[in-house]
Design brief:
This is DUF1223 domain-containing protein. With about 250 residues, the chain is α+β, with helices and mostly antiparallel strands. It is built from four helices and eleven strands. The strands form three sheets. Strands 2-1-3-4 form a four-stranded mixed beta sheet, with helices on both faces. A four-stranded antiparallel beta sheet has the order 8-7-10-11, covered by helices on one side.
Amino acid sequence: MTVMMAYNCISRWSSALGVCAIIAIIRPAHAEPRAVVELFTSQGCSSCPPADRIIGELAKDPSIIALSMPIDYWDYLGWKDTLADSRFSARQKAYSRMRGDRDVYTPQVIVNGSVHVIGSDRGKIEGAIGDTSKAERVMSVPVSMTLAGKQITVSVADSNKGPAAAHGEVWICSVSKAVPIAIGRGENRGQKVTYYNVVRNLLKVGDWNGSSGSWTVPLENISREGVDAAVVYLQDGSRDKPGLMLGAAYTPLH
């Protein structure tokens, strides 16, 4: 009798709450972002704060994975960037080599691994998102993350072009959603700037050959003080020769 009463109660709920519950369960698995936007920025660059604000605005859009990658090559100008990582500087230069130009500057945004624009120009960023999303392979592979206990499992679907036409690398970014910094010297002296979705570490998970696969990573390899989210991306090419973004996913860690 108790079981039947409980069942009837749940049934009466279903029309009001059932849809919400289903959406809450399904949405993470089916979220398919249309763009990865990488901002190369610096605390020592007076042109960067407007771009940093734009990344904060884009980070609110669930269809966009916006990342800040602070570089270190302006550190000699009087203020050492407290979030900078030489790997981000190397990544920005690798993009330039792949394009065949010398366009390395701040604030610079790379959209979906292929187009670069000035990071403080939101119109151009949105235009690049629209243009790159029309490319056949860009963000075409479903990618997901599952957080369970002290592990994260990354899953990548197979390529609809077949394994022979697909290759790439799978990376996880440790992310701090918002980091306020009081800048004491240099071009931004006296300013307090908040940096959004700051990448604090990069970890290669594995290689992808076009077939579906999954990888499990201990949370301790990703988490550190201040890290409260993770991003996984599947990118054509390699770390030294980065190509198109093929898929990505975002998950909070807390």
